[in-house]
């Protein structure tokens, strides 16, 4: 399944790419398996980059991952990082996991710590 969503701009008849939700970012395939999105800042705007945070398995080990989200219109729908146009996740180094947990919403914090075997 490809994760590109196209829509036609009714005024210009051009196809534009829509923002790809964090829960739909499944690459790099073969190395990564998404388990739970912990934070999704939504689409980026011209003024501010929005980002997302999740837990997944990187080559069979549970890891925290992050990414800059794409834009709804006028920019990259894939966000950053991306590979060959497909949105991907950046695997967070272990020493940054604990500080990033501070942005995880309270209702997902216990789950996130359990998934990452943190106390």
TrEMBL record:
This is Uncharacterized protein. It comes from Methylobacterium brachythecii.
């Amino acid at each position: 399944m490809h994760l590109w969503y196209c829509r036609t701009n009714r005024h210009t008849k051009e196809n534009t790419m829509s923002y790809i939700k964090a829960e739909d970012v499944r690459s790099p395939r073969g190395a990564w398996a998404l388990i739970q999105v912990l934070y999704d800042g939504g689409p980026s705007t011209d003024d501010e980059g929005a980002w997302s945070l999740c837990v997944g398995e990187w080559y069979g080990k549970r890891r925290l991952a992050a990414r800059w989200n794409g834009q709804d219109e006028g920019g990259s729908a894939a966000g950053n990082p991306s590979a060959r146009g497909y949105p991907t996740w950046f695997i967070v180094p272990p020493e940054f996991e604990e500080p990033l947990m501070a942005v995880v919403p309270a209702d997902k914090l216990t789950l996130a710590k359990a998934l990452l075997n943190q106390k």
